[in-house]
Amino acid sequence: MSDRTMHFICGLPRSGSTLLANILAQNPAIHTTPTSACHEALFCLRNQWGQWIEHKASKELADDKNLQRVLAATLYAYHGTDRPIVIDKGRGWTSLLEMAEFALGHKAKVIVPVRGIPQILSSFEKLWRKQAETGQAQMDYFQGQTVDGRATHLLAGDQVLGLAYNRLRDALQRGFSDRLHLVEFDDLTHNPETTLAGIYKFLGVTPYTHDFAKVEQYTHEDDSIHGMDLHTIRKEVRPIKDDAAAILGPDIVKQYTGTEFWRNNQPK
């Protein structure tokens, strides 16, 4: 099918996925991506496959084997790189694992960055405050007026954190835990060498010696689209202080502490 090996990154927002992608890209054998629409391209192809009049008229064209070939070709051709290992960072892979495995022809391997929910909310809140002088983030006007309202908004099922949270929980409930390698943000920032060793073991890739004191920005995204600086990384991997109580207040931290369901379902 291809000389490339395809893997995925799909986790919770503000949990280190961009940092991790740029660390992994230090390895000359690995191409990591900005947040991509590769899964969306496959999703659209799969869902429209049987709707085209030509496919309704030809069982040969509409055959599942033909669909698999086209999905696989799209998956492997989506990123233009000479590096033999591609790790696609996409928000929807945990909800589309069946489709991914149909395209791949084998089990998928997904790196899943995660983080304590109060820490994620605190990170988003700090970004909101940075741009609050010049404009309000796109959300319900009244809900967006308070810290509690903004946290509730982010965790709604159709919003960036709530959707990722529910997708991950559902993937575990669907029995895909062996395809997922969870990477806690604090583990990545406190013990990057050990954390990367675990990732390489999960992927079955020869380990590489990374420079955690000088991580260059390999992936690039135009964050003006989001209205927040979501994807600029620090060059040095170092621990990040947990300031959730100071930013959100103790009541909100208490409300969301212990909601990290994956910590009871860590795949072995």
Based on helices, strands and strand pairing, what is the structural class? Answer: alpha/beta
CATH architecture: 3-Layer(aba) Sandwich
Biggest sheet strand line-up: 2-3-1-4-5
Strand-and-helix sequence, N→C? EHEHHHHEHEHHHEHHHH
Can you count the helices?
13
How is the biggest beta sheet arranged? 5 strands, parallel
The tally of structural domains comes to 1
CATH T-level fold name: Rossmann fold
Describe the fold and architecture.
- It contains 13 helices and five strands.
- It has a single domain, classed as 3-Layer(aba) Sandwich (Rossmann fold), CATH 3.40.50.
- Helices cover 44% and strands 10% of the residues.
- It is α/β, with parallel strands linked by helices and 268 residues long.
- It starts with a strand and ends in a 12-residue tail after the last helix.
- Helix 2 packs antiparallel against helix 5.
- The longest helix is centred in the middle third of the chain and has 15 residues.
- It is globular, with a radius of gyration of 20 Å.
- The protein has a five-stranded parallel β-sheet with strand order 2-3-1-4-5.
